[in-house]
Amino acid sequence: MQFPLSRVLTCYKEGPEAPRTAACKAAIRASGKQAFYDWNGVRLADVAGRHRRRIPDGRLCSAGNPTFRGLDLPRSDWPATRVKSGARLDLRFAVTAPHKGAFQLFITKNGYDPAKPLKWADLDAKPFLTKNNPRAVNGLYDLTATIPAGKKGRHLIYAIWQRSDSPEAFYSCSDVVIGNTSASPGSLGTKSLATSGGGHGGHDHGGTTPGGQGHGAAVPKGHAHGGASPTSLHVVRTASDEPAGGGLFGAGLICGTVGLTLGGVAGLLLTARRRRQENDL
């Protein structure tokens, strides 16, 4: 989800190699860095609408996938977006491979405690937004909803995108703080993707999770589902991605150095031999 920003994309944008916030540091320790490079992999390939039966309490944000268990960590300091109670909110989902299907967005009940594992019973019984087969415009699903009146303080928005042309579904968790101030996507440690050139929207789709075709951001396979536009989110190879010695370039440099060294030794030996021959004469 691009707005409000989802947990997995928040940590991806902070940088899996050096996250800033305590929550993302803990999540990356729990899941490993690669899960956040595969930020668009929170999905179930064959769920076919059986979300509550397939995803156990305490594991909603990971969709029950142990690869993303860091997203389920109960903490009260997850970076959050400020939104206004009772206000209309433009929710943004970016998509690179549109599919037919339905979006459902749930919000937590009053009294929700983010320091406890998230359960299905923590969510309102009915979604505050349901949208069937929205039309993607310029790679975006823009959905308008009203935050339920009477909500205040810390809450969580749980999004489900169930495809109708496949049993596959995608999930995301977005932390929000509801008050009387206007929506502020850059508050409380989050960044506004709307102002930074786009980014993950819709669902945290795809990835390299077991049980279906891979749609990972780090190792793309098949076609990309949702997530950021290719120009806004990039997987950057770091020095740690190269094998010891710097890969082919490093190997060539080492070989070249060895060759120069051996050549130099041979030259010195030849010079010494000639000098001995001259002395004998």
From TrEMBL:
Residues 187-231 are annotated as: Disordered. InterPro entries: Cellulose/chitin-bd_N, GlcNAc_Chitin_IntDeg, Ig_E-set. Coiled coil: none annotated. The chain crosses the membrane at residues 247-270. The keyword Hydrolase does not apply. The keyword Ribosomal protein does not apply. Residues 1-176 form the Chitin-binding type-4 domain. Keywords: Membrane, Signal, Transmembrane, Transmembrane helix. This is Chitin-binding protein. It comes from Actinomadura logoneensis.
